[in-house]
Amino acid sequence: MQTRIELEAELTETMQKQRSRLLRLAQRRCRSREDAEDAVQEAYLSAYRHLDQFDGRAQLSSWLTRIVINAANDQLRRHATHAIVGISADLEPGTVHPEILHDAAPTPEESCARGEQRVQLQRLAARLPSAWRRALQLRAVDGLSTREAAQALGLTESTLKTHLFRAHHHLRRYQRLLGSAC
Q1: Taking the domains of the chain in order of start, what are their residue ranges?
Q2: How far is residue 117's CA from residue 76's CA, in Å, rounded to a whole number?
Q3: Alpha-carbon span 6 to 12, nearest angstrom
Q4: Residue 137: which residues within 8 A CB-CB, separation 6 or more?
Q5: What is the DSSP letter of 156?
Q6: Which of 31, 126, 164, 176 is deepest in the core (most CB within 10 A)?
Q7: DSSP code for 94
């Protein structure tokens, strides 16, 4: 078991080595680079604050990746619920400015469609063998690299890639069958 000082040193090193990858991961989830940078910064602070909760079952980089994903999701939720509208004195009364009025949140129809797609995908994924489903979860949902996901599952990278290929193939097939049945 490592001491707190050793863990802090390893965490700092991991943060430096993984910074660009973690930033890209956060950017895929956030709306802007600034939001992604904020999410990564919040994740770093959270990781330091909760370093005593790291139990060593996963790699430190995997643990940090999960924290970044959660921070990016939190950042996205914050912006979705707090739309900021700037009011300017230069606006003339009676003038419509769609860029100010535009709400970036999805419409109720879009939310409903996404929800239905998510439920359908979850049902389809539930039909997959558990090894394929776990591989898909770690790569597609949790955002782990191929190497990290393979290590987490105790597989070789080529075996993980085979599981992912088969999972994607079967999901597409299930989706086509479901689509033709409707």
Answers
A1: 1-82, 107-182
A2: 20
A3: 10
A4: none
A5: -
A6: 164
A7: T
Task: Give the count of beta carbons closer than 10 Å to the beta carbon of residue 15.
Answer: 18
DSSP secondary-structure letter at 92?
P
Assigned CATH topology for domain 1-82? Rna Polymerase Sigma Factor; Chain: A (1.10.1740)
d(CA 73, CA 9): 27
SS3 readout for 8-56: HHHHHHHHHHHHHHHHHHHHHHCCCHHHHHHHHHHHHHHHHHCHHHCCC
For residues 135 and 152, give the distance between their C-alpha atoms in angstroms, rounded to a whole number.
Answer: 9
Q: How far apart are the first and last CA of the chain?
A: 56
105-145: pLDDT as tens digits: 667 887 777 778 778 777 888 888 989 988 988 888 777 88
pTM (predicted TM-score)? 0.48
Question: Any residues with CB less than 8 A from the CB of 152 and at least 6 apart, and which?
Answer: 58, 59, 62, 138, 144
Domain 107-182 has CATH 1.10.10.10: yes
